[in-house]
Specification:
- The protein is of the alpha+beta class.
- The chain has a single domain (19-155), classed as Glutaredoxin (3-Layer(aba) Sandwich).
- Helices cover 34% and strands 16% of the residues.
- It contains six helices and five strands, in the order αβαααβαβββα.
- Strands 1-3-2-4-5 form a five-stranded mixed sheet.
- A hairpin with a 2-residue loop joins strand 4 (126-131) and strand 5 (134-140).
- Helix 3 (42-48) packs across helix 5 (77-92).
- The chain is globular, with a radius of gyration of 18 Å.
């Protein structure tokens, strides 16, 4: 009888396993980053990052005026490094997860739902800052100074240019 109950429990768990954590492209959330086998690197990189407290002590109140979209790839070493750092900074600043959108791109920097269309994604990660649905600025692949300083300059309209910017 014990074996039957054990077998039934295992069968039910196997049938209800969530395919969400197996996604390789599409919209995800921070829960995916914490729990997917595709992002085993996330927790360690998040915890090991030490935020720039000196910069974070400045006025970041304008951050709440923005929506942020992160376009990333789980096999991209720049995404593995920068996305956990960026999310740790956002958490330190109490940024609302409702204003955050995370999109996984495949190796061609695309999604089957075409979420990247019109976004001009050339490198990952690309972090886009939107205000009233209009792009204000972006961080591409890695920060110019550091993430904290780059975010501060973007939200305060201080003439930030990403590392690939050209006129």
């Amino acid at each position: 009888m014990k074996n039957i109950i054990y077998f039934l429990a295992i069968s039910i768990l196997a049938c209800t396993s969530n395919n969400y954590y197996q996604l390789v492209e599409g919209e995800i959330d921070t829960d995916y980053l914490l729990n997917s086998p595709n992002t085993a690197w996330f927790q360690k990189n998040y915890e090991s990052y030490i935020v720039d407290e000196i910069t974070l002590n400045k006025d970041f109140s304008k951050l709440n005026e923005f929506n942020i979209e992160i376009f990333m790839n789980t096999k991209c070493h720049d995404s593995e490094r920068e996305v956990p750092r960026f999310l740790k900074i956002l958490n330190s600043l109490n940024f609302s997860k409702e204003n955050l959108r995370i999109i996984l791109l495949n190796s061609d920097k695309k999604t089957s739902d075409r979420l990247e269309i019109g976004k001009n994604i050339t490198n990952t990660p690309t972090i886009i800052f939107l205000k009233n649905s209009n792009e204000e600025n972006r961080i591409v692949e890695f920060p110019y100074e550091n993430l904290e300083k780059d975010i501060y300059k973007i939200i305060n309209n201080m003439g930030y240019k990403n590392v690939y910017y050209s006129e």
